[in-house]
Amino acid sequence: MPAGRQQIEDWxxxxxxxxxxxxxxxxxxxxSFVANGLSSRSSVALIGDLAKALGVTLSETLTWEYPTIAxxxxxxxxxxxxxxxD
Length: 86
Known about the structure:
Number of strands: 0
């Protein structure tokens, strides 16, 4: 089942909030991943987690190509898949 942009965005926000140990409301979907506290290493881990959740292969460079949560969610929503928890 294809995931919608909002579902992917919500998943990313929740995952980043968990990684940063902050509440989801503190994550800004229009700010860069760096501004949201992610390093290169944590960005690669995030993409790996998202790929696993969606059951697809994603490029580790997506957070550079799509530098905000909103942009990444929009792109990934076009690929298909539905994020789920392990």
